[in-house]
Amino acid sequence: ALRGIDLKIKRGEVVGLIGPNGSGKSSLLKIVAGITYPTAGRVEAAGRVGTLIEIGAGFHPEMTGRENVYLNGSILGLSRRQIDQHFEEIVGFAELEQFIDLPVKKYSSGMYVRLGFSVATIVPPDVLLVDEILSVGDLAFQRKSIARMRELKRGDTTIVFVSHNMDAVRHFCTRGVFLLDGRVAFDGPVDEAIEHYYQHTDH
Fold it and tell me: Would you state the torsion angle of the CA atoms of residues 104, 107, 111, 116, taken in this order, to the nearest 10 degrees?
């Protein structure tokens, strides 16, 4: 899926990872997150990595929202004390107070995303990986999520953002990496990366 990728992302950078379907964007994020291991080469991520890659990843469907907050938080490297300390805030941000003791198999995809995003970002990670997932939530929550990511950005969290929404990429990212057929076709200012994307989709 990926060939000859060589990228360095500095602390506090917000990078938009763009490209057509099948270009390797999600594969690259999964490797950085440690979900998939590379068959060649290596990846180093400094610090704690928060991920929002697949709906419900790290959640157990039979367990309640409450139990999954602890499960997912521990997978993301949070201590039980940190989760205890932030539990009410996690549930409040996700707007799931009345559903938190239901098994998550009864949640809609939007509820999954809200809870996953809240757990992943309540204690600022050093690196946050976000893959198109915010498009699942409603518009109000998308805005809330972008506002939270802006806070993280100001706080020096490194963010890698995969999206087909070029307006979101343009407004949120300073650097763009355009992937094509598993390779880096362009890496530079976000406007130029988007131009490469549009030139490719026009052909």
Answer: 20
